[in-house]
Amino acid sequence: MDKLYLSAIYIYPIKSLGGIKLEESIIEDRGLKYDRRWVLIDSEGVFISQRKYPQLSLLQVNIIDDTVVVTHKENSQHQISFLIEQQIGDSISVTIWDDLTNGIEVAEHVSTWFSNYLNMAVKLVKMPELAHRTVDKKYATNNEIVSFADGYPCLIIGQSALDNLNSKLKDPIKMDRFRPNFVITGGEPHIEDSFKDFTIGEVSFSAVKPCARCVLITVDQQTAIKSAEPLKTLSSYRTWNHKIMFGQNLLHQGSDIIRVGMELKINTFKEKICV
């Protein structure tokens, strides 16, 4: 088998906004540092995402020293920033799918900026350090916790999986549609489906569940325009149990710096899903 290397690392500090490509990152209990530590919620405390509000894709997030900066991709003058540690008021209930967790509002003027952008009342909240949102018990092995991500601390996708998909598409797409944390090079398309346990550096990972895909991947991350692809094409060869799968959700043990170029050491394999 080809050697497998980590070729890209991404974090998405504010859930469903533009991600940041890194050369290295620290992996913590909840996942990569700063990944999905903030989320926008509506007046009922329910998270919002590109699934319903594709215009969120046009908001690019960067972290500069101790400050989070959000900039509109088409108008750099349309910008808001706040300190990483900034927060006000008491804890607020936050609903992520079937999970109930909590967050603390960053600042009123920050929430107002996002509310004006979306033309609806929203708040930007941060996950407090003491929050304890656990991974689905059906897949957890050690009471793992997760940030505001959909359900798991990390997601991995092989570059060969995207290359294979693009060979079937009229208009190739970028990896940013799939919002992975880790991209790997080497191996056949969807080799990540066969991973059971592996290590990157000193951190142990388990691939516990294939990632089911929704309409979010039909949003062009540069234009916010939705189309039928790539869901239409993926449905022709990546459907399993009536769901379209692309990438693997991960759990991990340990905390360390992970860098682009590190080799994945596969300890055990499982049967690839039949699609």
TrEMBL record:
Residues 122-267 form the MOSC domain. Pfam families: MOSC, MOSC_N. PROSITE patterns: MOSC (PS51340). This is MOSC domain-containing protein. It comes from the Bacteria.
